[in-house]
From TrEMBL:
Name of the protein this chain belongs to: 2-amino-4-hydroxy-6-hydroxymethyldihydropteridine diphosphokinase
Record's keyword terms, sorted: ATP-binding, Folate biosynthesis, Kinase, Nucleotide-binding, Transferase
Domain spans labelled 7,8-dihydro-6-hydroxymethylpterin-pyrophosphokinase: 89-100
Natural source organism: Eiseniibacteriota bacterium
Keyword Nucleotide-binding: yes
E.C. designation(s): 2.7.6.3
GO BP terms, alphabetized: folic acid biosynthetic process
Length: 220
């Protein structure tokens, strides 16, 4: 049983409802959240002229193959209104689900053991020979679409802020850095990530997740 980390986002329609429905759908597929962050309103990446996003991160547990998990997330996106293909998929969206990490699994590295393109955070290094590697996908095409950990999670404040709320000590399997230290490296513009509220979907038996003081630059 591996810990699985999933990022959720939406910037079209009823954003909170879309994320809430995605969390509920995951629970029906034996992927209930064991930890769930608050919602954060965030500015679009790269200054794009788009509506602001709501973002959250959840942690669950699963014995499923990571590629199967990726396909589950893609199906939920489609069911909740995101086009599976075409230009509309990469723009504003009703729902965006990203598989951030699955245990210590590393997938999508080149034969030399270097990180995939885009994994170049400060202090990064190649993986050691003992690094866990994902199960082999069924085809080369399948392998190409699966990159773990997510290749840009260490560069995204809208992922690291909610991740730090629920587990600032989570350690990036490839970079060897904690979520808190990765967030501290980012230059986050004041007001670009704002606490929005709670989904009210805390797992049974748990209390509300506390807001943590985050070690970040700028006025989050």
């Amino acid at each position: 049983m591996s810990q699985v980390w999933i990022a959720l986002g939406s910037n079209l329609g009823d954003r909170e409802e879309s994320i809430s429905r995605a969390v509920a759908k995951l629970a029906t597929l034996d992927l209930p959240p064991s930890r769930l962050s608050h919602l954060y309103e965030t500015a679009p990446e790269h200054g794009l002229d788009e509506p602001p996003y709501l973002n959250a991160v959840l942690q669950t547990e699963s014995e499923r193959d990571p590629l199967e998990l990726l396909h589950i997330l893609q199906r939920i996106e489609t069911e909740l209104g995101r086009p599976p293909v075409g230009p509309a998929r990469s723009g504003s969206r009703t729902l965006d689900l990203d598989l951030l990490a699955a245990g210590d699994c590393i997938e999508g590295v080149d034969p030399s053991g270097n990180a995939p393109s885009g994994v170049g955070a400060p202090g990064s290094s190649g993986i050691g020979t003992s690094a866990p590697v994902c199960p082999e996908p069924e085809s080369a095409d399948a392998r190409a679409e699966l990159i773990l950990p997510h290749p840009r999670l260490h560069l995204r404040s809208f992922v690291l802020v909610p991740l730090c709320e629920i587990d600032p000590h989570w350690r990036h399997p490839l970079l060897g850095r904690t979520a808190a230290s990765l967030l501290a490296e980012l230059d986050v513009p004041p007001g670009s990530v704002r606490l929005h509220g709670s989904l009210g979907l805390e797992p049974a038996g748990s209390g509300p997740y506390p807001w943590r003081q985050l070690p970040a630059r700028g006025g989050i």
